[in-house]
Amino acid sequence: MNIAIRKITENDHYEIELVAKKAFWNLNMPGCDEHYLVHRLWNAQCYIPDISLVATIAGKAVGAVLYSKAKIETVNGSIDILTFGPLCVDPDYQKKGIGKKLLLESMNLAAKKGYKAIFICGVPEYYPKFGFKTADTFGITMPDSSNFDAFMGYELQKDALKGVTGKFYEADVYDCDIHDENYMKAVNEFDKNFPYMEKKVLPHQWR
Fold first, then answer.
1. 62: exposed, middle or buried (Cβ count in 10 Å: 0-12, 13-18, 19+)
2. What is the CATH number of the domain that holds 43?
3. Per-residue pLDDT tens for 152-206?
4. Which of 86, 127, 146, 165 is least enclosed by beta carbons within 10 angstroms?
5. At what angle do helices 181-191 and 34-41 cross, to 10 degrees?
């Protein structure tokens, strides 16, 4: 199986949105909205195409990672950092190392371009394998001063966050309130562009 990793082009957009839908469908809630987030990111000012990557097999998109600008607000001012999301792999191609390749290659690319650090909210059992540590390790909190295991960070440059304390802020595009009626109407309308998948209520869902 020949997995190719490359930068995302506009021609990849629909396929990546479909991959995101398949990857997250019924995972965290009945249905999902991650594919709508991907769609909104394409034209968002925070989106960074230079380090966002797609994985393909025989020319077909099977995974992707999308990066965005974020910041840490400190008493001494703002520090520019990165966040990413979603990182997604088509369920038919999971457990083949595709997510790992996307993550490592994009992190290496970001480091070479001089970015300082990455902060994410992700699966606590997955990202520590790649060096991510809980945000409290760095003295960083969410805007409401909270911390939790899923909130993690990684220094792309040695000691980039040494002596830094502050609060993490991501772009408004990541504000996906599934309890907002108008937002969910937009999600459901957007979902009509893709093959039908049944929504299910499952015990592990948390959203």
1. buried
2. 3.40.630.30
3. 999 999 999 999 999 999 999 999 999 999 999 999 999 999 999 999 999 988 8
4. 146
5. 90
